[in-house]
Design brief:
Largest sheet: 7 strands, mixed
Oligomer: single chain
Strand order of the largest sheet: 3-2-1-4-7-6-5
Number of strands: 7
Number of helices: 8
Bound molecules: manganese (II) ion
Strand content: 5-15%
Amino acid sequence: MSNDLQFGVEDLVFANRILAKYGVLDGFGHVSMRNPDRPEHYFLSRSLAPELVAQNDIIEYDLDSVAVNGDSRRPYLERFIHGEIYKKRPDVQAVVHSHSPSVIPFAASSVRLRPIYHMAGFLTGGAPVFDIKSKFGCTDLLVTCAEHGAELAKILDGSSVSLMRGHGFVAVGGDVSVAVYRAIYTELNASLQEKAINLGGEIIYLDEQEGQNADATIRGVMHRPWELWKQKVGTL
Ligand code: MN
């Protein structure tokens, strides 16, 4: 493992612990990163609660979500989410899949998740909803094969977030810190948007240009929350 790779995998372990600490992942959900040395591979923990993930739990997969080097440890059932998004989106370096509670109503409702503040400018293009039923009929709602994952990636298209009806969401980013930030703030935005809706008045969301501007600015200062979040989860 190169030094860069070592640091990358460390960041992935931090991402697991941070997302657990902030309630975006619990016993379920996962976060992955593309292998920076081999973009046709990605890293994801073995089937384990994210809060418990350590460096030696990380498995390397190809983009068909087959473990490389004959690693036979138990995988996450929904690893295809990650492989199929990396296949479709060369710009994506990290993927979070979560069932965090405030987001679920927006995945089930005709009310769209929209950016209520500058911290969620990445939602400006909309968060398209993947309904597994529309293509695959009655399932257990889980993304358990490449075909399910490819359809989710198709619905996500160029967006930063896609909601999953009756299930959760995915958030993607150009690096691990951005994907983590987007997952945390998707949850916060959903909670705040619901509060705004409950006020009962007219809501003015960020317009598309405001959202793009805010997203670019926030990504430029990502080092600040990332250092804080790492410190909050302590040493690995
Ligand atoms: Mn899931």
